[in-house]
Amino acid sequence: MRVSAAVLTGAGAALPATLDQDAAWDGFFARHYAGVRAARRIWDGAGVRTRHAVANPVDEDLSGWGTGARMARYVQEALPLGKQAVAGALDDAGLAPGDVGLFAVATCTGYATPGLDIRLASDLGMPPGLQRLLVGHMGCYAAVPGLAAVGDFVAARSRPAVLLCCELTSLHVQPAQRELDQVVAHALFSDAAAAVVVEPGAGRGRRLAGVVARTDPSTADHMTWDVTDLGFRMGLSPRVPDVLSRHVGDVVGELLDGAGLRVEDVAGWAVHPGGPRILDVVRDELGLTEQQMGASRRVLAEHGNCSSATVLLVLQELADVDGPVVAMAFGPGLTLYAALLLPV
């Protein structure tokens, strides 16, 4: 079987209405967390200025909604966002929907059957023989294993593929509680859809040159995303950055060693901005400069943490970077994933 290089040739994104961080606090969360003394300090320290929400808590309070109602709203809101992101990525790559051989969708914030993969494929006009893949409930790092899967398909089948990450975290605002991890989650998380096109042997774009994963099961309770009767609830330990600090150097070292590269050779760093401390740890452990963290800081400030879509947004910030790019994301497990992208 002939194996082709898997090359990222197009990208697209769709963002719902912008939500100002201070306005969200003043209009809803100050009341939601009244009496939690550390809440405002956590809110202000999240590194977020604006983000995006299909359900603005200032206008509508979903905290008492059941999970079924939230899932129905997810389908309603995700379809137009996903369609816009995928159409933009295909246009950027110069492909038609009928050219796609595999359509993969990553999400951890909403579910329905038939899913987004089937509904969007039909709406966009993808072929009836299309292969589909749903990457579900992996959390913030799902874009990288999703990219690895579509990259393997493209390399083995010599057919183009599309990966869509669509996350609507605003649908999972929780009832008022005193736990500080809930304040952190509500201060950070945001909504977005982002998509990439991967083509076989393309003469332009970035080649997927390697993927490395590491899971530390001894810290599985540090980050959780539980399905409850009132939507999905985040569990987030303050020890997450410490765990990342133990593993990120080895993961990046393994990734770069496979290509004969060093940290100094990397031109762009697309680090998932799980929060300011996460970015600080990656910077310090890898010996990076604050300038090298700039794209991730900007995405956090302007868009918040959009779960699996976020690292694709950071990659779009680095579209003009000439040279090797490393994409990294982190999530439940605790799990670290990293991908190396090389210019064609």
From TrEMBL:
Pfam families: Chal_sti_synt_C, Chal_sti_synt_N. GO terms for biological process: polyketide biosynthetic process. InterPro entries: Chalcone/stilbene_synt_C, Chalcone/stilbene_synt_N, Polyketide_synthase_type-III, Thiolase-like. GO terms for molecular function: acyltransferase activity, transferring groups other than amino-acyl groups. Transmembrane segments: none annotated. Residues 217-341 form the Chalcone/stilbene synthase C-terminal domain. Signal peptide: none annotated. Keywords: Transferase. It comes from the Bacteria. Residues 69-198 form the Chalcone/stilbene synthase N-terminal domain. The active site is at C140. Belongs to the thiolase-like superfamily. Chalcone/stilbene synthases family. This is Predicted naringenin-chalcone synthase. It comes from Geodermatophilus dictyosporus. The lineage of its organism: Bacteria, Bacillati, Actinomycetota, Actinomycetes, Geodermatophilales.
